[in-house]
Sequence to fold (538 residues):
Amino acid sequence: MPDKTYPLTPAQKMHFYTQMSCANHPEVLNIGTCVLLNGEMDFDTLRDAFFKSYGRYEAARIRFGKDKNGDVFQYITDEPMREPDLLDFAARGMSQEDAEAEIKRLASVPLERYDDQMFRVYFLKMPNGYNGVFFLVDHMIMDSSAIIVFIGDIIEIYCSVLYETEPPKELRSYIEALEKDLKYAGSRAEERDAKFWEETVLNREPLFTDILGPARLDAARRAADDPDKRSARVTSDTVEADICTFSLEEEPSNRIIDYCREKNIPVVCLLLSALRTYLSKFNRYAEDISVKTTVARRGTVLETKSGGTRIHFFPFRMQFSNSMKYIDSLRKIQEMQNKIFRHANYDPIKLNTEIAKRFGNQPGESYDSVSLTYQPMSMRESNSMLKDIDYMAKWVSNGVAAQPYYLTVMHNPETKGLDFFWEYQKGAVTPEQLEYIYYYLCKILFEVIKDDERTINEIIETV
Amino acid sequence: MFEEIKKIICEYTETDPSEITEESRFIDDLGMNSYNIMCAVGDLEDEFDIEVEESDVAGMRTLGDVAEYVKSKQG
Fold:
């Protein structure tokens, strides 16, 4: 038993339960990312950079254990990092396609959950001449922001040795951030947040809307013999998943960004409103629409630089009349987003449990079929060393997903446009259906930009 | 009051404290976003024992704006 242990945070528990609900697929918590540079790589220096960053980034040294009651805890290990494996696909004479398939296979190999290193590192020599790293990590120790900080730190250390540039600043303590996080339970802040969620979600039952239309809600109503039933479940025979990306070109992407800048509206609010408009159009013009939103909860420098997994998922409820002017609805969404930000430390598991209890939902039934995340910063934009280097970074699917459809909109540093990146359960939706939704979202976005003084109804009729 | 506000804001930005003035803009100069602005608002409420409406936040773009707002709230 380690000297100092800590309980899991709500964000970690959420992932832990996800993994339990996908019992045959523990790899559901794997996050794989490849960072590849065009040209030769000094793997000895890269290895040293990994070891140095590992030593100063507590989050990379998180491990999990189980006590005698079966409760899971976390601790920081003193054990050194394992040596990275070198995968020389070029020397093996493999095609680029086969090399990528092998990386995808490695992304689906589960990590040991207890008393073991929660990540693996592979150095890569690719057939197309790119060389770099495949980093596979468990979601319970890092989310995407934490990965970007870790990999960014390693690249900066690597460059500082090779090019004799300034070494990167120190990272921050995960334990310090964790201790602050754990103090929240039972605090006055928690009381305030509970009141907010009571008034926003719990006081009146939300309504399920689906990206594929009202069929799932209708089926749930028939099955329950209740024509007024408001919740439903997105069923899928399998949690097997895939990803697909639709890329919007630079010029139209800039129109979206410029519009948001001019109107002082966060891009994520415009995306949420487009999703709401789409869901309303295809769900009998519903006016009470919820989607799942993610809050990264990285406000202070300590939270930003200390790694770990901090994301909380919440229902984002957009409840207003479609006769409202579109620009006014955007302001309402922005106001709601600000409110959610202020109450985002609330335990999402507690909230979901209360929602299910309050409205008598069966396991898996909910109101929000689709999740939306907006990632404004790519690895390149968050790291000055990478600005002028020819490299590529991409997420690698682990092959399974706990949620039926999960949309992430992110900046693509190569195309300078916006990527609409879907991770989806193969049994829940097809790539063709997602492409159709993508085109609708774009149509809505550009109609809004053209004239946001029209009502939501008018925009719906136009598209 | 400005120094107390600055101390709070320094938790949210990597900008050198010596460069932070009353004219510093949260987004353009200090690299803050709507999430950390809202978190900082929570800290200001606790520090000055005031309540800030979400709709008032859009009008506060600099540290000076915040100082004025806090003064007006404290009457």
User: Anything to note?
Assistant: The interface with chain B takes residues 189, 264, 266, 295-302, 335, 337-339, 341-342, 376 of chain A (CB under 8 Å). The first strand of chain A starts at residue 6 and ends at 7.
